[in-house]
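#onboarding

Welcome to the new folks! Below is a worked example of what a typical request in this channel looks like: someone posts a single protein sequence, and someone else replies with the predicted structure as tokens. Don't worry about understanding the tokens yet, we'll cover that in week two.

Example request:
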Amino acid sequence: MSVNYGSKRIVVGAHYGTRDWLSQRITAALMAIFTVLLLAQVIFSKGPIGYDQWAGIFSPQWMKVLTFAVIIALLQHVWVGMRDIWMDYIKPVGLRLLLQVFTIIWLVACAGWGIQVLWRL
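Example response:
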């Protein structure tokens, strides 16, 4: 006869954190690399930065692709952080769901705006 000590954990599909923790570290590293690269281009440019020079930084296709990847990384980073805040501090399920849906809509709108600005440069 086997004896079970303690409670048996029931897995119900909740996030246990490792994937989200790793996601936040990877996206943070990508954003840090992008920031250093952008600062280096601004610092080592000749003369004051005007619109033409700023647009010139983002004109190569590789920079547009990198900026797009950073926008997606930023969205993922913010989503994981906000979802964790809503899950930890908002106990009523309906209000939490409403806030999560609002967060998704807000992030998609911000991404659309950022991509639109990026492709105008």
